[in-house]
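[audit] Reproducing an earlier prediction to check determinism. Same input, same settings, fresh worker. If the tokens differ from the archived copy the diff job will pick it up downstream; this log only records the rerun itself.
[audit] input (253 residues):
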Amino acid sequence: MRIFWPRASALPLALLLTALLSLTTTTAVNAKEDAPKTASASAHLQHRYSFSHDASDSIGDAAGKLEGAAVVKDGKLILDGSSGTFVDLPGGLLSGHKATTIELWISIGQNGNYARIFDAGEISGHAGIKSMYFCVDHTSTGDWRLKISAPDGKDQVIAIKGNLSGRKDLHIVSVLDPTTGFMGIYINGELVGSRTDLISLAGISPQHFFIGRSLYSADAYLNASIDEFRIYDRALSPEQVKADYSVGPNRIP
């Protein structure tokens, strides 16, 4: 028995068009799925301290230790400014980073001289060296500041007149990117101070990383409550800083 197959020309034109359209649509979808995706800021988040119950790190393996009267209550780290009250994080949290961003949500009480939100570096006698810190009240110069030690021993500083004591519900972001020279401070999504000659992060010693304590023994301890503290291994863009401020400390865009 002979079997007769229909020629392609015998197929209805509409059926041919439908088949071609289906093939084109499938190819377009696959191309979209295979396209490379841009990494979000969350992909570069190395350490996250949300203070839900303690000073644990929900991203990395760098849990902090509550010292003195430091407590976690209602999802916040409470530091009362008393001597010996701070969070001791593992040293070296910035080691190897080509750039970094330190982001936090904080309400600041009344503070004594030279109180630090954070201070990372080395202790030599009664002084701090090879360090990076954020000071809410640099008393002798009447400003608050972000400071980093350059590898040559000199300091690079952003200093802003006044102090941050008594300021509530602040979103503070410190961005340091030696690859572009940018060093900046954002408050509540807005850039408030910057410089463009940052040299390197290599001048920071990996010995200590404190929240609420200065490397200098004579400086005041921090009086504040902190909702969230984050460390990234890249520089957040202005758009990412604004997005984080918009969604708040409990979400990562």
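[audit] rerun output stored. Observation attached for the diff report: Residues 41-247 form a domain with the Jelly Rolls fold (CATH 2.60.120.200).
[audit] end
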